[in-house]
Amino acid sequence: ASKKDIFPWWMIAVVVVVFMTASIVIGICMRKFCPRMCCCINTHLEELDKLEAAAPNYYSSSPSAKNLEPINPPPDDWEIGPYSLEISADRLGSGAYAVVYRGILRGIPPILKVAPSIQLSISLNANENVVAVKMAHAHASNTDLTEFQQEIAFMKSLGYHPHLASLLGCQTDPLQPCIVTEICERGDLLGLLRSEVKEDTNFLTIDDFLNISWQISDALVYLAAKNIIHRDVAARNVLVTDNKVVKLSDFGLCRFNDTFLYTTRGGRLPIKWMAPESLEFAQFSTKTDVWSYGVLLYELYSWGMSPYFAQEPEEMLNYLKQGGRLMVPECPVIIRSLMTRCWSFGPDDRPDFEEIRSTIYAILRAVNGGDGYLDVALDYCQV
Q1: How far apart are CA 352 and CA 90, in angstroms?
Q2: What is the CATH number of the domain that holds 235?
Q3: 18, 135, 292, 334: least buried by Cβ within 10 Å?
Q4: pLDDT for 291-312, tens place per residue?
């Protein structure tokens, strides 16, 4: 055969070898230099077909919102570099549209760059910190991603408070954003209460409940002073450290409120924690957070029981209008009174968080002989 009839097989072999070599090199580089990416791919694939345990607590009133385009904000001083954050496969918890992993933040945390004075109030170092990393699920809709970016923006403006899960930094990748906060080793309060019932670990005792109640009220006083409505005050959104410090978290439903009432246009809402005016008119205020705080007290003193377990979500408004309320669990008489006042039908009949905090603090002072069990004279840093 002539030369032009001979097929150049050697050229194909060379191309295949070069392609395979390049693929191997790229794979090695990605695993070596992008641990975050590798971890996220693996862990998020696991989440793809899972329904989260907290999801039944939320009910959507705007299913058509799924077509919203996600926000893509420009990076700022809060941004964490791609090689400064390593995320492990150790899942700390999950919620309606996000999951939380243990992570390692290397270098100076952005919060110390934005507000250096925070160093006096928070235990962080400039080299390496174990942190909690909250990420949207792999199957998150555009609406979920938009809400997640809104939560990041909100947390930047929130400032630091010892009883809030404050922002340390973030990554605002439009397809895979994340929120980095201090880690709370014991997880969420609801899970901790239920594990105490099942396993009797004795980490929490009923004697701790007053302290926990005060810390949560302290966080809510701070939010109310900033005209912020949390809208999702519940035991599942309270995190606990090894030292029994609790931090209110999950600011995805938070809203600034320049007027007395905030009216929502829909979205996922925790029906069984909501006040009557929220259920009927979609109106929210600090006093609706007070109602939810009363439900949280029920969760606490009942050791994690689900509120209104016999009622369907669509029955709740009529049930409350007819005078139906939760059965108050065993607790101090003053807490019983506080709890039932939080569930007054009229918002003006409910106590405010200043009164709630003062009442619980007075009980603590009496129980502990006025020895200053709690330090309320903290100077909270503003970011």
Answers
A1: 39
A2: 1.10.510.10
A3: 18
A4: 999 999 999 999 999 999 999 9
